[in-house]
């Protein structure tokens, strides 16, 4: 009786709701497919815009811009078309070259040839073989020198004055260039010292006339003082490279149980200190560090054997060497990995900490 007495309108409303629910399911699938289509179209639009922007950048290259790029390509043994593709990969790179050439622009521009991230099509406007997330390959990067760290070869251009714009006619007289090779295992100091001693020093020494400096005794004294300072600076570069090569490098973490780069907070240190295996590995690493530091301190206390004709420069070189070694050691102690090791053994109340603090 209750079924017969049910409200017909209520039943109709329930059926409508049921139909609406079942009808909504395909609708959601259509919405998901539609979202994917929108994302695909958006990616294609970004790629197309990147290609158009690349064409615009190429149209901005002037003959004097191309002259600089040809110099770089020639020295790096690259085809000009390959180098141009590298330059056109980013708007900032074309901007840096343009700013170097305009009146009152920058006085230097650098081209780095080294391993770098490969940009995607929607970023650079061209398809590069091997491109993918995190992929790297040898590339040419245009920089002001304040961003990307130099790890390879640097071809640099300099202007002594920027009160005129560079053109195809005056660029030969207004611009000088040079090369630094930081890929050499001896480091950037050796490369810089080589340029200063092999290129600029002979040119300065061969210079016979110094303009107004030759007209009076004070000018000639200034010239002599400058040359002496220059020679001392070149000598200092050579000693600095030699001293840095003798610096002791603290042992690296080889434990598979912990990645010190992933330890960043106090809570991370507490969790690591609660694991006996991790603490054991960290203590072993800290013990190796203690032995290395003890060796450095022992060598610094040793008496030096000096010849009878030893002068003040030898004494100065000795203290420079000690300073370089201790500064390098101090920088390593202040590094992230070393601080995290100290935090972990401190929380675990390890006895190794007392030895490390004593040193």
UniProtKB/TrEMBL annotation:
A GO BP annotation: microtubule-based movement
Pfam families from the UniProt entry: DHC_N1
Cross-referenced InterPro entries: DHC (IPR026983), Dynein_heavy_tail (IPR013594)
Molecular function terms from GO: dynein intermediate chain binding; dynein light intermediate chain binding
Domain Dynein heavy chain tail: 280-354
One of the record's GO cellular component terms: axonemal dynein complex
PANTHER family associated with the record: AAA+ ATPASE DOMAIN-CONTAINING PROTEIN, MALE FERTILITY FACTOR KL5
Record-stated family: Belongs to the dynein heavy chain family.
Protein name per the record: Dynein heavy chain, axonemal
